[in-house]
Write a structure and sequence with these properties.
four-stranded antiparallel β-sheet; 29% helix; 2 helices; 94 residues
């Protein structure tokens, strides 16, 4: 089991219900194969350092996870890249 720190940035114009549903869906992808989400820290709405897809603000979420296999992180990255509401995602092994 490896520990990962994952940060993703969501579009700023999402309403609370949609944003919470998306965060839940992305975190659910990290709980596959006996993996666990240890901590979810929502930083909230912040200015982006640079424009991403014509967006200047984003909703930041940082997740600490203990992952059983790298395939879980790969699946999370795939889902995040396919979702147009996710501006960026970063994965770092601890």
């Amino acid at each position: 089991m490896r520990k990962y720190e994952i940060m993703y940035i969501l579009k700023a114009d999402l309403d609370d219900a949609s944003r919470n549903a998306l965060i839940g869906k992305l975190n659910e992808a990290l709980t596959a194969d006996n993996s666990t989400v240890d901590n979810v820290n929502e930083w909230g709405l912040r200015d982006l350092a640079y424009e991403i897809n014509k967006e200047i603000k984003g909703y930041y979420v940082v997740v600490d996870a203990t992952v059983a296999s790298p395939a879980v992180v790969d699946e999370f990255s795939r889902l995040a890249k396919l979702n147009p509401q996710v501006l960026r995602q970063f994965v770092r092994a601890k």
